[in-house]
Every structure is written in structure tokens, then in C-alpha cells.
Amino acid sequence: MLTEKRVEELEKFATDIRIQTIRQMETRGFGHMGGAMSICDLLSVLYGEQMKYDADNPEWEERDWLICSKGHAGPAVYAALALKGFFPMDWLDTLNQPGTRLPSHCDHSKTPGIDVTTGSLGQGLSVAAGIAFAKKIEQKENTIFCIIGDGESQEGQNWEAVMFAAQQKLGNLILFVDDNKQQLDNMTSKICNMDSFAEKFRSFHWDVQEVDGHNINELNTAITTARNNDERPHVIVMNTIKGKGCSFAENILKNHHINVSAEQAEDAVNKLKR
User: What is the pTM of this model?
Assistant: First the structure.
């Protein structure tokens, strides 16, 4: 259990990630706001408390890996990386601009700290499972983290990776499902209802936990619990709100990719700072 002070520090970090995510999209004028905002608390716990990394040496062999399979949430990851010193903060002003090092979707070839290029939905978990398998064979202690979206989970390739990870007993793999109940054009229940993620993963013999994806203590405790059990792959199903913390996007159905005006951004940032 984290101390009250540490929780406050990580909550502030999550707020800073949200503010910088909004500012990036304000500069560009639009962006994938909904799914970026829903993982900011998780990113705070990962980069602020749980992950091993070296901002001065992003390719450090002993680091923990993060594969953000829902690559359109890249701006939130960029915000966390910049705040932790992987690259200068002013790079955030170049999101998705010509010549940028920060494209709209995560790109390993361009951005320090991005472990895997993503954005073609449904592929990140397969990559994560492959990396985890390799590290297990090499008897390395890296933990491989992966984030997928609930809409993305409708891609069949995910479930091939789920079976493979269970068969190989990849206890070094921790998957997060961002279950915000929405996808690009509607509620997930209206497009392809996934029902209970927890029940599905249990049937595939994964270690399963369910948490409030915006609760720092719950996230941290779940990750710690998973890291202390290397017998099975782990999934942490996060109940989240798409657009969380962005006043003009939170809980709005069509918030997957939206226009962002300077006035909207300023109002949202001011509300986050209160």
C-alpha cells in the first residue's frame, strides 16, 4: 500500500500527464483525446512507481518494456516520457507535425522510450508475448507490460496471443485492458459486445484482477501482486472512463478523435489544476 503522500505525488503526475496531453492536441488542433486520457493514471503508476527504466539510455537491456498496443494513445505516453526526461518538453509542441519525432501513433524508430511501433490495432499483445517469451528463454528479469483497448480486443489476433501466453506460462507478461466501454464510433456493447473480460481471461488460464483504472492505489497494488507471481500471465482489467479528466471530452460518445480549440484546452487545463 502506498503512503498518502506518495498517492498524492502520483495523482499529481497523472494530472500533469493529462495537462500535457491536452496541450499537445491544442497545438495540433485535434487528436485522439478519449483513449489517451483514460490511461493517464496507469501511466503515472508505471513510470512513477513500477517500471525499471533509464531515461538517458532508453534501450537499457534490463529495462521493463511497455507496449501501448492502442497506439493512438501515444500523446499520453509522450507526455509521461517527456515529464520523466526521455526528451525535451518542447518536443510535445510538435505532435504529428512535419518532421516531428512524435507522430500521432507510437513509433519506436522516432521516439526515445517507445519500445514498439503500434497503431495497427490487435497486434501489440502478440509482440508483447513474443518479447516475454524471449526474455523467459534468456532467463532475464524484465517485466513486459502491454496496454490494449476494449474495442481493440475484438481483433482475433489478441486471443491467439492469449492462448500462447498461457501455454508458455509467461508470468513476466502483464496486460492491461482499458475497459472504457467505448470505441471509435459507438459503445463497445453496440459494436461487438465483449461481456466480461475477467471471465474470458480466466477461461484461458490467466491470472486476473479487476481494478478502478483511475485509482492509484488499486493500480499499484494489482501490479505489485502480479509481479510477485511468475506462474501465469497476468491481466489487469481497468474499469475506466474514456476522456477522463478532460472536461469537454469526458463521457461524450464521439470523443475518440476530436477537434480541440485553444479555449476548450485552456478551460480543461484550468479545471485540472484546481
Answer: 0.97
